[in-house]
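Q: Give me the 3D complex with pyridoxal-5'-phosphate.
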Amino acid sequence: MTKDLLKKAYDAEHFREEGHKLVDLIADYLSKCNNNPDFKVMPWMEPMDQYQDWKDYMHKDDDILSFYKKFLDHANHLHHPKYIGHQVVPPLPVAALSDLMATFSNNGMAIYEMGPASTAIERNVIEWLLDFVGWNGNSNGLITSGGSLGNLTALLAARQNFPEYDIWENGVKSELAVMVSAESHYSVERSIRIMGLGSESIIKLPVIDHRIDSNLLEDELVKAKENGKKVFALIGNACSTSTGTYDDIDALADFCNKHKIWFHIDGAHGGAAIISEKYKHLINGVQKADSVVIDFHKMMLTPALTTAVLFKDGNKSYESFSQKAAYLLDKKGEIKWYDGAGRTVECTKKAMGLKVYQMIKFYGRELFESYLDTTYDLAKEFAKYIEEIDDFELATQPDANIVCFRVNNGQNEDELNAMNASIRAKLLKDGEFYIVQTNVDDKVYLRITIMNPFTTLDTLKELVEKIKTIN
Ligand SMILES: Cc1ncc(COP(=O)(O)O)c(C=O)c1O
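A: Here is the predicted complex, encoded as structure tokens.
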């Protein structure tokens, strides 16, 4: 067996040539996304057709440029101003270059020497973010692969922190419970179940206008105790997924501090508001929380997945996994901050911090603030517009860059649900706009998340006109 194929595949000049072609292709694509009115945001194909197409293509002869072009032709175009669907950012193009570097260097971060620069970079990125939270001294955190994993990581620390049991050592106790918003993201409930707790341990707190009703917290706790439950954590939304509503973080924090309950903020989407002078009030009280999760890949311009898990008491970040992996420890059995595996589910972990560090270094806080303010402002303008036009209505006023609205022409609720679901289905197949739908108070609403900073009010007015014609 020869190594010719390996040599060819690893050849530096081959890489240079292919890389240049790819960068040119992406730059042309970016320009097309912004400047070509006929370019559809979402070229719809049924899942099985898509699957078959890629299956047939796999062993066909083609050049690399055509391969990448084909991928883009079949992708959902997040950099298109008419992408107003899910909460995934069109990443800053140059941040994708850092991601390429991170992918190429493949410096895992289980222990320091696997990725010395990545490890130091991650700590700097986390410290930069911690400054906005307003904790001092002892706080720290880590980066992990996504908000779902971030919520789980924080909740594991919360559970291990509960003074009555050593769960890691002795196993889970069914009397433990967590209070969550009735509107929390599914990853929160999933995390609790992954931790071995069932439905009876998930106390869903009632909401008023999509916020946890803080007036009912004491009663809910009394009820939980009467049911034999020991509440070890409460999770607040900053903001909720469906309507983008922020809980009253300050009130939740005071309640938790009073009862010595771990307060975790799921700020996967809207935690980034801490960086905005204009919108940081939405998350007032954040410094009283025990842990906060913030997705860089949602409101901080970063390619997915990249999530900060922040802890007020940095030592608690070592409690998620009170497990000893001998080869990761020093001789005294101590885990150092720079040996990352002690604090994440991940062992080999990509250098996720590199792309954030790059944006901080070359653009600074203003970049993130400008992005957040632009998208949050536009949501408010669009909501105002929806209120002014006939036969459209809002589900609720937007706190963030998420707006839920529907067509309401006076039909009964079943008919309205069917009509709005059908509008969204037609939009999906039409491909000019990409939006999603959600249920709010058991009614079907159209839902937009303004993720592209180049979406304008005119783009959204065009959407409304499209909805009128497509219906
Ligand atoms: C409030 C909230 N929490 C958690 C998540 C999960 O984050 P990720 O997609 O990064 O796993 C989401 C995703 O939309 C979210 O909106």
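A quick observation: The two ends are 63 Å apart (CA to CA).
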